[in-house]
Amino acid sequence: MAHSSSPLASEIAIKHTSSDHSDVETSDGRKDRVAFERKTMRRVDLWLLPLLGMLYALALIDRTNLGVARITGMDRDLKLSKGARYSIVSAVYFVPYIIFQLPSNLFLRHLGVRNWLTFCVVAWGVVQLAMGFVPNWGLLAFCRVLLGAFEAGFFPALVFVITTWYTRHEVQKRLACFYIVSILAGGFSAIFAYLLSLLGGKLGIAGWAWIFIIEGAITIAFGVVAWFFISDFPDKNTFLSPEETAFVLERVEHDRGDSIPDELTKQKLIEHLLDWKVWVFSLMYMCATMPAYAIGFFITIILRGMGWSVTDSLLLSAPPFVFAAVSIMFFAWISDKYRHRALFIAIQAIITIIGLILTGFSSSPWARYIGLFLSNAGSAGCIPAILAYTSNNITSHTKRAVSTAMVISFSGIGGIFATTVFRQADFPNYLPGIYATLACQVFMIILLAITTTYFWRQNQRTRAMTAPAIGGQSAFLYTL
User: Alpha-carbon distance 422 to 315, whole Å?
Assistant: First the structure.
């Protein structure tokens, strides 16, 4: 495999080539290396994943707590049921969210991971807090635009940074762990938000407004504390020793040859954006996030439409997210174990389809509720799976920055789609939204079949040496 010509890369390669030779001389040497690897990667896991997962959980809560605020009084006070106001307020968030993701990722190294992520968290926390004081739905929509702008650079930066730390066939478990934190927090956030709404009347503030005020204050506090602990890219980190840093970089270099960042040029940016695979990955991610957003925004409203009270709807909204967390981790573990992505993405898409059919077309409230379990687990599981599928099949830091931003920006399109097809006029069954979401799952399976077939053929040609090296790396093969 061709290694980077960077002096640091050369030093890493030389150092670990010599250590590899010494390690193979004795079983003790091999055991020492395995122990060192386990200790180092456990340290990376504990430093990166819980904190970043919690911060993303706050982002997810802050963007989806509209549903709870709506049924606890905001609908009445701001007259959101009039026309398409609620759909507009929900959808406008995604416009800046889509626009600003790519520029943010491209300049992430120059901005500094710690400074940029801290700014994003504190800024959207301030906006979230301000939403508790809006007097009308127009200002609420404006705050949602600002919320989308400040959250835009956050998630793609997290995924970009995390994928630079791990080898290809261990990354989905890490993305899943990181995402599960947000899933569980998001699942119980409706109950927490309801408890906050019981403060209604205190200081003359409505219950729904307390949701935004307190959750915004919590986000700001977490953002300030996180500044002291957020890590940078592997080659710029400060929490590992020099030996541990060199070891992490060597593992990535051996796996895919892009441990050292390459320089972004206009020509590279154009090449990355013209790669059809990036657009297909993006469309797949849009299809996966659409049902996830629909459930996040509408689960309490859907449960209310099934006949349950406000309190029961909020309590019943949590179990589907707990089930989803277990399902996500299982599929991530099995996908990394067998080093295969496409089959398990397809299985989870089918689970989503079954769940949507139950929720949309069953006459039994409990069958519809079980459908929420399945559709939530399937769609939520596809999100880290597609992110892993994407990161496994690209090389170089610049392409990783571009593809991650592009893929995640398409989740914004999925969010707009979800908030516009699940219309107030279709309450309580939301059948047009169900039909549209089912169509997206079928489309995602078709795209998955296309990429899998292409990757399999390219791998066959690479093994037979009848095609150029993939990504310029002679030992690199696509992950199916």
Answer: 22
